[in-house]
UniProtKB/TrEMBL annotation:
Belongs to the TRAFAC class OBG-HflX-like GTPase superfamily. HflX GTPase family. Keywords: Coiled coil, Cytoplasm, GTP-binding, Hydrolase, Magnesium, Metal-binding, Nucleotide-binding, Protease. Mg(2+) binds at S199, T234. It comes from Natranaeroarchaeum sulfidigenes. Its cofactor is Mg(2+). This is GTPase HflX. GO terms for cellular component: cytoplasm.
Length: 432
């Protein structure tokens, strides 16, 4: 499906690289572009002359859609449709993103989030129709569709129902996260912009995992994480066990950030971002081959998103060092030092410096507590010792005639559980 890209900026030079990538990710073939630097035209978004240029180009290139890297209100969308050749669809940035999300949503949670975003997008349009109808105007001629008095209330009801279902899913996921922590797992989340290479890096960090063996304990673990050069490969979340030094670590890859997302769209995917917010450590992955100003802008936006609700430490990962030379890498490290004071530079594609990243992850995760427990010798003692082996780093075990001394390190929650299990052990009554 042929598409022309259109973009207007208030000042500077319009950059169409991201919107072109998004269009291709949605399945369009980009055949041309029209850009303009000027203030927004209230009726058309772009100036009338540029819109006429778009119309001619659409005819010449047999375009079926014009994709605007701007937000268009319903009236601008209608007016543009009247100026373009019959059959040419007008699509704005956010409609395009929703289209991609809809194509990629596989899980029930992802599908609900896409539906919620679509309803949030539609609601103001339904409200506009209601407003026009109350003024005894006919909104159909403005491209808003026929007025349906109940549609606005239907949308609000659907939004409420979806929120309730997402909340139930989130409670289940939070329970699962808590179980993992109690089982001694540290939770590490990959965050960053789309195409930063998060999924590729995940394949380097994750162990080969037989899902069947972990089905009961972790039914949502995925055996593979796709790594493709396209936007939004990961729409939901992918969780895998990580190759760590001495700790049990679960690594989660989440939907990538993208610039200039409206609040209603970010809010729709809040429960996916919770996977990041509630991690023990965040790896903020950036593509170091991008221009330094672009990297800086992405880091600022990512930090704004993460620091809003996140409490975990953040490690910046400069990925794709195979695409830059040593001099460029050093220059970018220096230029970004304020935003990324101690980054780890890696190549997820080549596996270069991944060991250093694993060491850094181990160092940044929450400290473990050291514990020495004396367990009375009972019929249940060995099962407690076995549980500690499974959930902690055991340094030494000494068996006496009447007790067992276990020296270990573990997460605070595991230490607490170990003490509780020890206190429940009751020595067998001595025979008379």
């Amino acid at each position: 499906m042929n598409a022309i890209i259109a973009k207007r900026v208030d000042s500077g030079t319009p950059d169409t690289s991201e919107i072109s990538d998004l269009a291709r990710a949605a399945g369009y073939t980009v055949v041309g572009e029209v850009t303009q630097t000027r203030t927004e035209d209230p009726a058309l978004g772009m100036g009338e002359g540029k819109v006429e240029e778009l119309a001619v180009l659409s005819e010449q290139l047999d375009a079926e859609a014009v994709i605007f890297d701007n937000r268009l209100d319903p009236y601008q969308t209608y007016n543009l449709g009247q100026k373009l050749p019959t059959g040419v669809e007008v699509i704005d940035r956010f409609t395009l993103i929703l289209d991609i999300f809809g194509q990629r949503a596989q899980t029930r949670k992802a599908q609900l989030q896409v539906e919620l975003a679509e309803l949030r997008y539609e609601l103001p349009r339904a409200e506009a129709k209601t407003s026009l109808a109350k003024r005894e105007e006919r909104p159909g001629f403005m491209g808003l569709g026929e007025y349906d008095e109940s549609r606005e209330q239907d949308i609000k009801k659907q939004i409420s129902n979806i929120r309730d279902e997402l909340e139930r899913i989130e409670k289940t996921e939070e329970h699962r996260r808590q179980q993992r922590r109690e089982s001694g797992f540290d939770l590490v989340a990959l965050a960053g912009y789309t195409n930063a290479g998060k999924s590729t890096l995940m394949r380097q960090l994750a162990t080969d995992l037989d899902v069947d063996e972990n089905e009961e304990l972790h039914p949502d673990l995925d055996s593979t994480a796709k790594s493709e050069d396209r936007l939004f490969t990961t729409l939901g979340t992918t969780t895998r066990k990580m190759e760590a030094r001495r700790r049990d670590v679960l690594l989660t890859d989440t939907v990538g950030f993208i610039s200039d997302l409206p609040h209603w769209l970010v809010e729709s995917f809040k429960s996916t971002l919770d996977q990041v917010y509630r991690a023990d450590l965040i790896l903020l992955v950036v593509d170091v081959s991008d221009p330094v100003e672009e990297i800086r802008e992405k880091l600022v936006t990512s930090h704004d998103t993460l620091y809003e609700r996140n409490e975990a430490p953040i490690v910046t990962v400069l990925n794709k060092i195979d695409k830059v030379d040593a001099e460029e890498l050093d220059e970018k490290r220096a230029a970004l030092s304020a935003l990324a004071p101690n980054p780890v530079a890696v190549s997820g594609q080549e596996g270069e410096n991944v060991d250093a990243l694993i060491d850094r992850i181990d160092a940044e995760l929450p400290d473990w507590e050291h514990e020495r427990l004396v367990l009375p010798m009972t019929e249940e003692t060995m099962s407690v010792v076995s549980w500690i082996h499974d959930n902690a780093q055991v340094n030494d075990v000494n068996y006496g005639d009447d007790d067992v001394l276990v020296d270990f390190e573990a997460r605070p929650t595991v230490v607490e559980q170990s003490r509780s299990k020890a206190s429940d052990l009751t020595p067998a009554a001595e025979s008379a």
